[in-house]
Amino acid sequence: MKRPTAQLASKQHQKHQIAKMPTAYMYVVDRDFGFAPNPFHGSCTLATCKPVIRRVAKKGDWVIGMGGGRLKATGRCIFAMEISQSITFDEYWLSPKYQDKKPVRNGSSKMLVGDNIYHTENGQWHQENSHHSHPNGDPNQHNIKNDTQSNAVLVSDNFYYFGKSAIEIPDDILSKVGYKNGRAHRKFDLASALPLISFFKENFKANTVFSDPFDFESASWRYSFEDNKVTSS
Question: Could you check whether the bond before residue 37 is cis, i.e. omega within 30 degrees of 0?
Answer without folding.
Answer: yes
